[in-house]
Structures are given as structure tokens and as C-alpha cells.
Design goal:
Blueprint lengths: L18 H12 L4 H27 L4 H10 L8 H4 L4
């Protein structure tokens, strides 16, 4: 658990447990839980995923003019686009 009050992203990657190791630990712990506790954990995981998604959405919405550019691009006729391969054949 992160007890030093600093965001986990600020720590060097060598200090972090690998994602694979975290998944392994979680899978081992899941085997020990009752169905009721599994439901609680599932609900909490859904809450965390929703919170992370909402934070990402808010981060994108904070970019000035991004929503307007997306709407403008969606309104642009496909015939106005050029295939990237015809622009650069060496990529």
C-alpha cells in the first residue's frame, strides 16, 4: 500500500511490483474468498474502473478546444481525407 502520500506514478518503476505479479497475487487471493466476498470485490473493482474512466474523461475534457475539434472532424466529409499511404509511402 502507498503510505507516503505520494502518487504511485511518481515512484521509479523499479519500486513498483510488476502488473503480472499483482495479477498473480490477486488470483491467489481470489481463490480464498467466499462467493459473498467475491461479489463485494467485484463491485469495488467496478467502482474503481468507473472512477478511473471518469478521471480520464475529465482529463480529456480539460484540453481546451478538444471537443470542438472532434465535432469538426466528425462533420468533415470522408472525401476530404487523404489516405496516409499516399502521403508517405515509406512508413
Amino acid at each position: 500500500m502507498n503510505t507516503d502520500n505520494s502518487p504511485i506514478e511518481d515512484k521509479p518503476s523499479a519500486d513498483l511490483v510488476s502488473v503480472a505479479e499483482l495479477q498473480r497475487q490477486l488470483n491467489e487471493l481470489l481463490k480464498q474468498l467466499s462467493p459473498e466476498r467475491l461479489q463485494v470485490l467485484t463491485d469495488f473493482a467496478a467502482y474503481l474502473a468507473n472512477a478511473e474512466s471518469e478521471a480520464a474523461t475529465q482529463e480529456l475534457l480539460a484540453i481546451p478546444g478538444l471537443l470542438e475539434r472532434i465535432k469538426q472532424n466528425q462533420a468533415t466529409p470522408k472525401t476530404d481525407y487523404t489516405n496516409w499511404r499516399s502521403l508517405r509511402s515509406d512508413v
